[in-house]
Write a structure and sequence with these properties.
mainly alpha, 5 helices, globular, disordered N terminus
C-alpha cells in the first residue's frame, strides 16, 4: 500500500468544515461550527457509553444516537433540533468519513 492510499487521520476541524459545507443552506444557518463540534463530541460520548461499534443493527443504533443528541443538545441548552436535522448532520459526517477512509 502506497503512502497515498493510507488512511488519513480524522481531523475534527476538517470534519466540521466538510459537514457544514455538505449541509443544505438552511441547515448551514441552523448549525454553527461550534454546534457541529458539540454534536461530534456528543457522538463520541454516545459510542463510549453504549459500545455501539458493531454493524449488527445500524438503523436502531442511528435512531438511538439521534435521540441522544437531540436530548443532550436540549438539556445542555445548545439548541432544539429535529431528528431529521440531526440525521442530515450524521449523513454529512458519514460522507466525510468516506472521503478519508475510502480506498483509491
Amino acid at each position: 500500500m502506497s503512502e497515498q492510499n493510507e488512511m488519513i487521520e480524522y481531523d475534527d476541524e476538517a470534519a466540521v468544515e466538510f459537514i457544514h459545507n455538505y449541509l443544505a443552506e438552511e441547515l448551514q444557518k441552523k448549525f454553527t461550527e461550534d454546534t457541529l463540534y458539540y454534536i461530534l463530541d456528543v457522538m463520541c460520548d454516545f459510542y463510549e457509553k453504549n459500545d455501539y461499534l458493531n454493524e449488527e443493527d445500524d438503523e436502531a443504533e442511528t435512531e438511538k444516537l439521534i435521540a441522544f443528541i437531540v436530548e443532550q443538545a436540549q438539556k445542555d441548552g445548545v439548541g432544539s433540533f429535529s431528528p431529521d436535522d440531526i440525521l442530515m448532520v450524521l449523513e454529512a459526517e458519514e460522507a466525510y468519513m468516506n472521503t478519508i477512509y475510502s480506498e483509491d
